[in-house]
Design goal:
The chain contains 13 helices and no strands. By secondary structure, it is mostly helical. It is globular.
């Protein structure tokens, strides 16, 4: 029996395209505004109502960042290195640990499995601020305050990442894993050679969210040595001059936006391609 296929008219396609264009423009407004503000001279920044255009663009705000950075206690490049290092290591650890924890929850049976997953689900209800004090006590007992570990260890354990990876891994056919075991593959080989490639959309998405969160954190509760502080901390010190540094603050905000956007642009094509292939059913 032949089924009817519903096709949109030309007018329907144009309406959908218009709606998507309006939605995309609305979502792009904050990024556009931040970019414009970074290139405004001081006299244009405080114009009311705010404008999404700049009449006399200038790069003075970015030059001031470099000048002010020269007066910091440690070289500005040190702050940048700290953030890049912690973001890369933390993101890699986040994806690997979340994936390895999700695999047994999704594809193995063991006592306490349901209780463990319920604990993970309940932990999604709490924000990071709720556990700041016990987290600090644990780090102090481990003697990792004022080390890179104080910045990396808290971000590699992600309830959201574990939940996301588990949901994707549950869609993998168990017969495929059993066939791999029959062929002599151990669990690590199955995990890295079969499971991880099949959940590529999940861990690419996790990379974006993890990197964004780690890049923007300051770590001020655990780091007191100046040479271990992160890039956002240095920028906040530069911005702390009040209204006179409003232009510098706008330029610093744009600088903070760039790496997450680049990360998204690098990975989004892979995500869309993998999603498209994952949606094809034989």
């Amino acid at each position: 029996m032949r089924t009817k296929q519903l096709n949109r008219s030309v007018g329907g396609n144009m309406l959908v395209a218009l709606m998507l264009l309006v939605l995309g423009a609305f979502m792009a407004l904050p990024i556009v505004y931040s970019t414009v503000q970074a290139f405004k001279p001081m006299e244009e920044i405080f114009i009311f109502p705010p404008r999404f255009t700049v009449q006399n663009p200038t790069t003075k705000n970015f030059k001031l960042i470099g000048q002010l950075a020269g007066g910091l206690w440690v070289p500005f490049s040190r702050y940048l290195f700290n953030s890049v290092f912690v973001s890369i290591v933390g993101t890699a650890g986040n994806v690997i640990i979340s994936s390895m924890a999700a695999y047994p929850l999704a594809k193995h049976s063991f006592p306490g499995k349901k209780v463990l997953f319920k604990l993970v689900t309940v932990s999604l209800l709490f924000t990071g601020g709720v556990i700041e004090l016990p987290r600090y006590i644990v780090m102090a007992k481990l003697h990792i305050i004022n080390t890179y570990w104080a910045l990396i260890l808290p971000v590699v354990a992600s309830s959201m990442g574990l939940f996301l990876m588990k949901q994707f891994m549950e869609q993998i056919n168990n017969s495929l894993l059993e066939a791999a075991r029959v062929d002599g593959m151990n669990e690590l080989q199955i995990f890295f050679n079969i499971v991880m490639p099949m959940v590529k959309p999940a861990w690419l998405t996790q990379i974006i969210f993890a990197f964004q969160g780690i890049w923007s954190m300051t770590g001020g509760n655990y780091i007191y040595k100046e040479n271990l502080k992160l890039f956002p901390t240095a920028l906040s010190q530069i911005q702390s001059g009040g209204i006179s540094r409003a232009g510098v603050a706008a330029a610093a905000a744009l600088v903070m936006l760039v790496p997450p956007i680049i990360m998204f642009l690098v990975t989004q094509s892979s995500i869309m391609e993998t999603m498209a292939h994952a949606g094809i059913k034989e």
